[in-house]
Amino acid sequence: MKIEVTRDVFPLAQVFRISRGARTEAEVLTVTLSDGDHVGRGECVPYARYNETLASVEAEIAALPRDITRKGLQELMEAGAARNAVDCALWDLEAKKAGKRVWELAGLPAPKPEVTAYTLSLDEPAAMQAQAEKNAWRPLLKIKLGTPDDMPRLEAVRRGAPNSRIIIDANEGWSAEVYADLSSHLVRLGVALVEQPLPAGLDDALIGLDRPVPVCADESCHDRASLPDLKGKYDVVNIKLDKTGGLTEALALREAALAEGYDIMVGCMVGSSLAMAPAVLVAQGGLITDLDGPLLLAEDRDHALTFDESGVHPAEPALWG
Fold first, then answer.
1. CA distance 9 to 29
2. Half-sphere CA count of 20, side-chain side, radius 13 A
3. CA 315 – CA 321 distance, rounded (Å)
4. FRET partner for 175 with CA separation of 20 to 30 A, picked from 67, 76, 93, 262?
5. CA geometry: angle at 135 spanning 170 and 286, to 5°?
6. Dihedrals φ, ψ of 243, to 5°?
7. How far apart (Å, rounded) are the C-alpha atoms in residues 143 and 117?
8. 215 with 180: CB under 8 angstroms?
9. 48: DSSP letter
């Protein structure tokens, strides 16, 4: 089997800011697998938060044996961006060879559109209110917080979009005391979910804390091995394929998390429709879908996912799966 890795750059529609910094483009790695007759593709976004770079992930993939299988991949590579791109490409290749859809191979029901969050870039309150007004027609908005001026920003977004559901991502920027102080205001402003308020590794402070707004584990949850440490701290787990290391583990994590009583959020890095396509299968019936990466791009891939009032639609075979 031939394994090819390419670097692709997608300009963003506008500067995208979170508390950790700003970006103007999305840099991704595309893995293409070929058996001579069929081609499978997958995409990943290396994340510096987990000590991943484009070069380091390329090197991991280059070291793989050319006869790698999905089962062998789980045993050979750790969860992360490199395994994600290869795992999703293997699923795509299997589907192409079988003449079936990935959801059929995985024994899943036929997927349907899922309403997705749309993320507003971090900015001054007036600018965020303007963003919210522009996107007030969307049913679910997400805002990135984790700064000393979070409440004015949240108030501004609520004024701009009075009827939208709002979820917030604190990006590990709060303490337990800050969350406790803000929680009544979050309820007042109709916030539906708070994502990763405390730093991973310091989130024991959530144990026993009143959580009037559901708290979601993001950086604290990577794969099934993360679940034992989440008890008593979180209500929801955010499944991202670049953290789980692909669709195979993402589906297994979803099943295990549901069995332990967690609700499911499915999120993404800023990437193209190729990265979102496998995640749409994981998002089916979940509490929150946050697969808006392509909506933030100035240009997407050919055969891009469809986004409309029904949400994000499953991929066509020409894109993936």
1. 9
2. 8
3. 7
4. 262
5. 55
6. -90, -45
7. 10
8. no
9. G
CB 253 within 8 A of CB 237: yes
Contact 241, 223 (CB under 8 A): no
Q: What gap in Å lies between CA 131 and CA 318, rounded to an integer?
A: 33
- For 318, counting Cβ atoms within 10 Å of its Cβ (0-12 exposed, 13-18 middle, 19+ buried), the class is exposed
Percent of the chain with pLDDT over 70: 98
Kindly state the tokens that stand for 92.
């795509």
Q: Give the pLDDT of residue 20.
A: 63
| Mean of pLDDT over the chain | 95
In the block, tokens 């506008």 appear at: 14
What average pLDDT does this structure show over 293-313?
Answer: 96
> Which token pair is 296?
């933030």
| Residues paired with 34 in a beta bridge | 2, 39
The Cα 305–Cα 71 span in angstroms is 28
Q: Find how far residue 153's CA is from the centre of its chain.
A: 23
User: Can you give the pTM of this predicted structure?
Assistant: 0.94
The length of the chain is 321
What tokens were used for 58? 């390329």
Q: What CA–CA distance (Å, rounded) separates 316 from 302? A: 11
Q: Which pLDDT value is given to residue 173?
A: 86
Pairing type for strands 21-34 and 140-144 reads: unpaired
Neighbour count for residue 113 (Cβ, 10 Å): 18
Q: What would the two tokens of residue 198 be?
A: 């405390």
DSSP secondary structure string, 296-319? GBSS--TTPPPEETTEEPPPPTTT
d(CA 143, CA 122): 7
* Burial (CB count within 10 angstroms: exposed 0-12, middle 13-18, buried 19+), residue 165: middle
